[in-house]
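Private note to self, pasted from the team thread so I don't lose it. Backbone tokens:
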């Protein structure tokens, strides 16, 4: 199973989180870890468009599987306190749409916490030209400044990019952003 870019929530305060959504949950590992941390204080939705992934995510105690697309989230506006994405936003074709949807479903002051990849310069030509690179989260990797601009345009503030981990030919980072009040 693919484990993404590392666990995004290792030192994130989950106080006040009643509804969290794992965007692009895959097999649901992060959703299960998050549900364990929240206990009975909150609910965790595990969102993916793959039915096979949702069957795996369903195995996690405290995890509610939800079929959907990050570019058109099947959630009401202002309903979530926390959105988690682990190497999944890179897989979206329209990152601006996915981030706008993330901002829409978050309550004011809600947080997006992601572990994603950034590129430092151009990707090697053999990766840039390979359509299958999208499946490995490499084809759609923006530079750090591009991520920041996309997130701010979507309606987030306080964008922090940290926890850099080289993962050649890219760098895994943690992105934290707060929805504007």
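Design output:
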């Amino acid at each position: 199973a693919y484990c993404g870019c590392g666990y995004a929530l290792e030192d994130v305060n989950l106080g006040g989180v009643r509804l969290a959504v794992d965007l692009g949950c895959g097999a649901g590992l992060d959703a299960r870890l998050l549900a364990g941390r929240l206990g009975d204080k909150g609910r965790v939705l595990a969102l993916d468009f793959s039915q096979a992934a949702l069957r795996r995510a369903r195995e996690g105690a405290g995890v509610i599987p939800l079929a959907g697309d990050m570019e058109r989230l099947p959630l009401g506006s202002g309903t979530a306190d926390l959105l988690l994405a682990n190497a999944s936003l890179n897989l979206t074709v329209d990152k601006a749409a996915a981030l706008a949807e993330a901002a829409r479903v978050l309550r004011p002051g809600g947080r997006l916490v992601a572990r994603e990849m950034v590129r430092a310069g151009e990707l090697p030509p053999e990766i840039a030209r390979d359509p299958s690179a999208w499946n490995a989260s490499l084809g759609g990797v923006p530079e750090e400044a591009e991520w920041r601009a996309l997130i701010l345009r979507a309606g987030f503030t306080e964008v922090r990019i940290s926890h850099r981990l080289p993962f050649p030919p890219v760098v895994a980072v943690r992105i934290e952003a707060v929805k504007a009040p």
